[in-house]
Structures are given as C-alpha cells and as structure tokens.
Amino acid sequence: MVKTIAVPIDFRVDSLNALRLALNTIHTGKVNVVLIYAQTPLDSITDLLFYSPSEVISSLKSKEFEAAISIIKNRYESLLNHISIELFQGFGMRSVHNFLEVHKIDEVFFFKNYTLQPPKKGFDPVPLLKKSGVSYQEVGTEMEDFSRETKALNTLFNDLVIEIANH
Amino acid sequence: MLLLFGGSIYYFLYNYSYADFYKRLETRAKIAAKYNFEADKINAESFKIIRSEHLEKLSAEKEYLYRVDENNNLALTAKKSGLPLNFLADIVKNGKATRQVDETFFTGIRHGSHQNTYIVVVSAKNYYASNHLLFMRNVILLGILLIAVITTYLSFFFSKRIFDPIKHITDRVKQISTDNIHLRIEEKGNDAEISQLISTFNDLLNRLETAFETQKNFVSNASHEFGTPLTSIMGEAEVMLMKQRSPEEYQQSLVSILGQAERLNQITQTLLYLAQTGYSNNRINFQILRTDDLIWQVKEMIDKLNPKNNIQVDFSLLPENPKKLKVMGNRQLLSLAFMNILTNACKYSNNKPVVVTIASSDEQVFLAISDEGIGIPASELTFIYDPFFRASNTRNFEGYGIGLPLTRNIIKMHNGHLHISSTVNEGTTVQIKLPLAKIP
Questions:
Q1: Considering CB atoms only, which of B320, B364, B370 is closest to A155?
Q2: What are the structural domains, with CATH classification, of chain A?
Q3: Domain-located, residue B440
Q4: Which of A25, B138, B342, B411 could cross-link B416 (Cys pair, CB 3.0–4.6 Å)?
Q5: Residue A28: CB partners within 8 Å, gap ≥ 6?
Q6: pLDDT digits (tens, 9 = 90+) for A7-17
C-alpha cells in the first residue's frame, strides 16, 4: 500500500531532518513524499502573469539541498517511491484542504526541534496545517542524545558556502 | 576607396553631361531646320516664339545654315563659316555629327527639303559641364579630404585610448620580478575589461606570492625538521665517543639514535609521498573501492595502534544500495588519507568521540569526520595545507605538519573535495566528497 506523507520545508538542509525522522517511523510499504513549501499568495498582476511554481521551486533549491534530498533517497531507497516538492500558496482553511486533497496526503510530519525559517515571501505553514484536521505526527524529542542524531545531515553540509568560495 | 567612389561619380556625370548636351544641341538643330526650311511663314514665326519662350537660351548659342550643292565643294563652306572641314564632311556622309572645339560644342544634321540638301549646325558652350561639374569635383575632393582627416583622427584617438592602458600594464608587469613580487598593478575603475585584466593579473601575482612564501617556509621548516633529529643523533654520538662506556650505555644510546633515524626516515617517506601525489601522474592504479569498507579497515588499524580511540561510525545516512558507496580510487592512498584525518581527529581531541558519517547522493559520496578537539584558529585555517605548517595551539602534540597537505593531494587526485571547518576548543569537522564510480 502506498502512503503519502508531507513534510513542510524551508529549503534548508536542517528542515529535511524531519523527513529523515519521519521515514524512520515507517517500516513497511511504500511512501510518497510531498515536501511543502508555503508562500504567500501573489497579489500583483505581473507576478500572476509570469506565475510558474516550478520556477519558484528551482530558484529556491540550492545544490546542497538537492544533494541532501538525494542522500535521503539513497538511504531509504526501498521505502521511498517518489519525492516531490510542491508549492503551497493560499491563506485560508479551504486552500489547505484543497492542497491536501489534490496531493492525496495521508499524514503530515512536523519537527519538534526545529522551527522553519522560510526565506522572503515564504511563511511557516505548520500552524495552518495543524488546524486543518489532517492527521499529523510530531517527530523529534527534547532528549540530549537526540541532538547528535540530527546533527548528522548538517555536518555534511555546513560551511558549504565557504567551501564554494574557496574553490 | 573614397577616392574611387568620388572619381567614378565625377567620371560618369562628366560623360553623361556631354552626351546629354549633344542631344540638346541636336534637338535645337532639328527645330531650326524645321522652321527655316519646311514651315510656312506663320508656322515659322510660332516655332520661333515657342522656341524662345520654352527653350532655355544656351550660352554662346549659334546657328549655321548651309546649302549643300552637288558641285559646290565643302571646303568653300568650311572656309566661309570657320567650321572644320571633316566635320562638315561627316554630317553629309552620316546624316549627323558632333564635334568639340575648345569649349564650344557643335552638332550638325543633314536636312533635305525642296530638292535641296542643307546642313544645319548649332553650336553652344556647355555651361553645365564647365561650371557645375567643376563645382561638384571640388565638393567631392573636399569631402574626401575631410573624411580622411576625421577617420585618421578617430583611429588615432581610439587606438591610443585602447592601447595605452595595456601598454601601462605591460610596463608594470615587466617591473615585477622575484625580488619585488609584492608590487601590484594599480586598478582603474573606468574601463571594465581593462580593470578585469588588471585584477586577473593581481590575483595571479597574489597566488605567485603565496607560492613563493610557501616555498620559503617549506625550506626553513623542512631544514628544521630534518635538523632536529640529526642534531640529536650527532649529540648522542659525540657524548658516547667522549670516553669508554659500558655496553648498556652504548645499547641505550644506539636505541635512541635508531629512534631518531626512524623519525627521519618517516619524514622522508611522507615527503616522498607528498611529492608523488603532488603532480598528477597516471602510474597510480585506480580500482573500485567501497568507502565504508575503507573506513572500517582504517578504524581497525587505528584500534591496533591506539586502543583508546573512540571512533564511532554513523550509519544513519548510509545508502541502502552498496553501489552508491563505490568510488574509483587507489586503496593505499585513500586509506592513507583517511588514516591521517582519523588519527589527527583522535590525537587533537585526546581520544574524545570522533564521529564518522557516511552518506551518498546520486553523484558523490559524502564523508564527514567530526571531533571535539582543540580546533584550528580561524586566522590559521588558510595555512593548514602548507607543508610543515602547524597551528599555534598544537605545541603539546607531536607531528610534522605533512599529513594534511598529503591528504589533500590524495583527495584532489581522486577528483574529490576536502573541506575543513573548525572552532577553537569545540572541534573540527572534515568533509570529504568523492565522486561515485560509474558502474553500469
């Protein structure tokens, strides 16, 4: 049975730890993953005229973020069916319901130890998603040893900017 | 080019004006013949009026009318009129003829009427040819001259503007030699390409200067490193030779000399490795290796040498597919590189936990080795790849400072990236990225 889970992201490598921990809780079956990036709806005509979700996503996606996704893909190869990044643009409950329905999302995972730091124009969809009534689960704990666990993905990527500057 | 253009305009207009003028004269001659010989009185009058009203009076226009008799010879007529004889003969023979005498143009036609043959000649001066063409010639010449002057000025101006800064750069670069490599070309903000060139040159000079510095440091450090064991060997030997000693003492001193010699040997060995890996040669055999295997082997080796180590391998990101861990590489060199980094991590953290994380994307294998050691001061991070360089906080640790440059050379040979980030007293993280082997 294929299950679809969603994880809100902010295009930082840290936000992908939620996905990693979420996948740790699932042991059988196949999983489709929808990474949700939330953005405030557009209000100017020119923006609407050249509106393209895929362009917005590809402009925000950094090299390290892509690499991190592919690391997770390789790690959970047998579990994962498909990972996609979707742009959510809306205000009210109705648009949330609509979004969840369109992408057939069964469960949403939030990361307790990390608050999203969305870039300009983006917003944190967590409160909205929690209110929507979709079944959700919070992963991560406040325990000490946990910090080491979450650090793993970040150690591979921190200071990547400096590295690029050096080469 | 311009001259050719101007010249051809002048030439064709000149030719055209002549042809045109002869045509005009011919028309006039025809009209003259009409009203003189064919029309009756009234018609002749009206012809004359029309002609004087509508046709422009040419300068020095004259009409000649002669009757040609069978027996009358042309020579007499020629004499009487002052017209050239062969011209008249041409008219009689061909029906019409043209001729130019000085500035005056003649056109004559033969006209037959009332059983008689007449010659009608009209002559005039070509005002257009003499004045207008002259004026045009002057204008064209002046134009050519002006254009030539402007073009020359502009080309000189631009070539000066373009080549002056380049010449300046050349002069400046010529001045720079090994003695004054600190000199730089001063940057100018007004010209994008030139300032780009200048900054490229300056970057090159910066790199060269660093290379020179490294070279100088290398020599002094290397001689120091070689000198220390040699001095102690010599000192030891001298002390032993001062008087007769017991066999135990000899043995002890020989052991110490052997230790120093071994150290020397180790330094030369690593230096040799460094030199070999420094330049790219194709003699090294590459094979497909599993990174996690390598890490385990290195860990086992370190376990034997230093049982107190605390290396933990983190598999939480390990890919499920072992293919994603395979890289093309040389086993000895890669394990030497990992060995260096792991022993450093253990050494400078006094056997605190060292975490090795292995992960892989679709193109690269990522390795991160983080320790909780003394770290590297931020100001010294740029020098860590210089041979024999040792950070200021490493006084209490043994080492020569060759390991890291060697490791970097090895990773470079495998087309990978090595990056080190560190905070003093918190720890160091070494990230290694190696490209995945292409396995079909």
A1: B370
A2: 2-166 (3.40.50.620)
A3: no
A4: B411
A5: none
A6: 888 888 888 88
